[in-house]
Amino acid sequence: MINCEFDRRQFLKWTGASVAAAVATQLSMETLANAASASPLAAKTPILVLVTLYGGNDGLNMVVPFTDPVYKSVRSNIALPSSQLLPISGSLAFNSSMPSINTLFHHRKVAIVQGVSYPNPNLSHFSSMAIWQSASLTGLNSGWIGRWLDQQPHSPFNAIGVGSTLPPAFVGNQTVASMVDVGGMQLPWGSVSAVLPRLGATSRSDVALEAAAATSIHDLYSTATRIGPHIPKSPSGSWIGQQLALVAALINANVPTRVWEVNLSSFDTHTGEVGDQNALLAEVDTAIGDFMTKIGAGSRSHDVTLMVYSEFGRRVQSNASDGTDHGTSAPVLLIGNRVKGGLYGEQPPLKHLDPNGNLKVTTDFRSVYGGLLHDVLATPVNDIIPSWKNALSVH
Amino acid sequence: MGATPTYEERLATARLLHRFNFGPTPGQYANLLEHGLAATQAAVLVHGRDDPELDAIGPLVLADLGYFPSGNSPAKSNAFWNRIQKDSSDLVMWWLDRMVAARYPLTERMTWFWHGHWATSISSVTYPLTMKKQNNTLRFHALGNFMDMAREMVVDGALNVWLNNNENYVQAPNENLAREFMELMTIGVNHYTQDDVAAAALALTGYSTVQSNGRVTFNPKEHFSVPLGLLGSTGVFDADSFAKLVVSKSDNVQFIADRLWFRFVSGSTVPPAALTQSFEKRDIASLVSALVYSPAWTDPANTLVKSPVEWFVGACRALKVRPSSLNASDTQWLLSQMGQLPFNPPNVGGWTYGTAWLSGVAYQYRFELAQNIVAKGDFAPLAVQPLNMIQACADWLGVPQWSSRTANALTLSLATPSELALAAILSPEYMVSI
Fold first, then answer.
1. Which is deepest, A98, B2, B61, B213, by most CB within 10 Å?
2. Where does residue B323 rank: exposed (0-12), middle (13-18), buried (19+ CB within 10 A)?
3. Is A355 helix (H, G, I), strand (E, B) or coil?
4. Is the CA virtual torsion B393, B399, B401, B404 positive or negative?
5. How distant is the Cα of A349 from the closest Cα of chain B, in angstroms?
6. B412 in A contact zone (CB under 8 Å)
């Protein structure tokens, strides 16, 4: 059943339009480096890093209820064999593509919140992600971090997204987050190189999009010329690894940023799931393992909490294409040296599904946000999520 | 006529040319400004005429490359993949050439819109011939009737492979095509239930696609031929009756009108209610005409960022450069680094939008691509007195007005027309359609 009040306007907005409407500041690395030295983040300020997995990550093949006979029977073509499992309890095991997170779990630095989604899940990628990012079932047009930004003393550094596309969660009613890009830079060459930097200044007559275009030019020059010692010289490894390496470097450089976002796509595994998802989870795992090592070597080791989430989990029963269709609840991972590791919430039973053959929802995602707002961002929950009070604390 | 065009006229004329015709050819913008907005509206809508420029390019004939070579001969396997790569490159360059060369570009422009709408990627379809067939279908219906287009697309081989309908069985349905067909291609989210998705998936069983040539066959024995409830109707459905039912829903009218508005007019405003009237009969040309004649073009809010392909094609049209005269692999690599290689949309939701195209990282690739275009470019429109060069450049490229920033920067290049052209197509004013 669809019980979601997103109308077509929200659909338009959340498929990218809101990001364009509210033009993000693109921060140059130069500006970031200056900010880090001029106004470093106060010691012990908690930092949140959102890791968004787009496409609908299959929770049941990430944290596997491996002793449940139903798992093997309804997923005969994609059930992971015991050789591909890393048990963490009598009934649950990590996918063996996740050795670093498994190690962190055994060091009690990973909280697994089970059965997370929202009431009456809508199986659409786009509206599910909109609900997660807005923390609203009724179509608020602002993101949850965006509304938090609205309440902060204004600074372009409060929240920063990595990559080229700003996540809707970072768009507030008055404020939007900033963006930074990963990647090696090569400056334009030839005689025109005396002209192009001048095109990077914003002009009083610019409309917002022209100003954004000019800022992108400025950003190329400032990034390439003044990138500073903080930025990984030649990003290597996976895309998610490059993003998290950049975030780790900037956190260690004391950039005054409280919330970061990185993301990875392609979790929509309708076919050939095992190979594809394992490869993606391995990238995420390596990236997070490296991130925690880098953070561990700096002064922010106990300040950082990561949240790994996706718009939905997948159907319990696999399909004939060795994949899974869209589903509902899935685990959310919260990772950090200050996190009290372990299992939270209740694993939805494989035997008692909703009428569409999907997992029931045992934890409302807003409770997870509630805990993060309270413990990490020191903000009353219902200031950000109207009429919501529950907070699941893992700190 | 004769009076100096107002800023609003310059703005509206530039928007129409860039958004519906991939930008002006040399002299076209100034010429249309002399004849007034109505002349521009009529000009950008011309389609269905014989186009000598496209005739000169000719058809692209691709062979059916058949199955992957069997056995483990590396030589055969390499030859196969080399051929796939060559055909794929030829296909991209052929289409880019058409966009650039067209005397009446609306059909190519609409084909480009529909490619993003029915966003299918060669990354999983693999075979260029199969993608080319879909491209032909989209071009054939580009300004035709959406009902006809949808009925043909639901059994399009490339779309069926891309959305896993080859793996959709009665015993184990795969919902991918059923859901995305309704959500992203015809009626939009929340206008159907999960039960409708499950029923639609069953309606779409029994079809199989030959991946190498896109031929779709129907096997009634594999089809779910039991009556089922779908979007409030009950009956035995197949792909065609499913497509007809969905497109006949009134939600389809609003959905398609919204999608065109989003890509041609603005992502931050919504279309006037009256726009949908032009699409009641699912006639795409009527809807496009209603958009072109809408008052949107003088509203300052309706700004867009040109996508990388739109920017590239526009620059090639102005500088009279055929994409196929450039190094094909460099061109395609640079477009893909900017995030938009034709036939390779990132996901079934289609291309991204707006400021996502504007990053410092993308600008370095934009610079390289611009350099390659300018190296083959024709700068005749800049052969004027130095005092008039910067205005001539705006009139040439279809820029309503330079900012003082850009005008001042361009004065550094007055002695070198190629450098002036390069800086101009790399300016903020040319990267967006304000």
1. A98
2. buried
3. coil
4. negative
5. 21
6. yes
Instruction: Name the residue ranges covered by the structural domains of chain B.
Output: 46-144+304-372, 145-295
Q: Looking at CA atoms only, how far is residue B61 from chain A in angstroms?
A: 31
Q: Which of B63, B57, B159 is nearest to B108 (CA)?
A: B57
Task: Please enumerate, as own/partner, the contacts of B409-416 that have beta carbons within 8 Å and a separation of 24 or more.
Answer: B409/A195, B409/A196, B409/A198, B409/A199, B410/A195, B412/A194, B412/A195, B412/A198, B413/A192, B413/A195, B414/B386, B414/B389, B414/B390, B416/A191
Which of A 266-325 lie inside 8 A of B, CB atoms? 268, 270-271, 319-321, 323, 325
Q: H or E stretch including A110?
A: strand A110-117
- The two tokens of residue B241 are 């009756």
Please identify which residue in the block is written with the tokens 């199986």. A123
Pairing of strands A159-162, A259-264: parallel
8 Å CB contact of B359 and A214: no
From A21, A124, A325, residue closest to B267, measured CB to CB: A21
Query: Can you give the pLDDT at residue B352?
Result: 84
The answer to whether the CB of A156 falls within 8 A of the CB of A369 is no
Instruction: Report CA dihedral (B83, B89, B91, B94) to the nearest 10 degrees.
Output: -130
CA distance A269 to A330: 15
pLDDT in tens, A208-263: 899 989 988 887 776 555 434 566 666 778 999 999 999 998 898 888 899 999 99
Would the pTM count as exceeding 0.80? no
Contact (Cβ atoms closer than 8 angstroms) between residue B184 and residue A127? no
Query: CB–CB of B354 and A19 under 8 A?
Result: yes
Task: Give SS3 for A275.
Answer: helix
A70/B contact by beta carbon, under 8 A: no
Compute CA A49 distance to the chain's CA centroid, rounded to the nearest angstrom: 7
Q: Is residue A72 part of a domain?
A: yes
Indicate whether A209 belongs to any domain: no
Of A55, A195, A319, the CB nearest to B413: A195
Domain range holding A362? 8-185+227-384
Contacts of B406 in chain A (CB under 8 A): 199, 203
Over the stretch B223-253, which tens digit does the pLDDT of each residue have? Answer: 999 999 999 999 999 999 999 999 999 999 9
A198 assigned to some structural domain: no
Share the mean pLDDT of chain A.
Answer: 86
Q: What is the pLDDT of residue A185?
A: 54
Residue A222 within any structural domain of the chain: no
Count of domains observed in chain A: 1
Chain A residue numbers touching B355 (CB-CB < 8 A) = 19-20, 23-24, 166, 209, 212
Contacts of B267 (CB under 8 A, 6+ apart): A12, A16, A17, A20, A21, B304, B353, B354
Residue B112 in contact with residue B34, Cβ under 8 Å? no
> Would the CB atoms of B176 and A209 count as touching at under 8 Å?
no
Q: DSSP labels for B11-69? A: HHHHHHHHHHHSSPPTTHHHHHHHH-HHHHHHHHH--SS--HHHHHH---------SPP
Partner B, chain A 99-128, Cβ-Cβ below 8 Å:
122-127
pLDDT tens digits along A69-80: 999 999 999 999
B222–A contact, CB cutoff 8 A: no
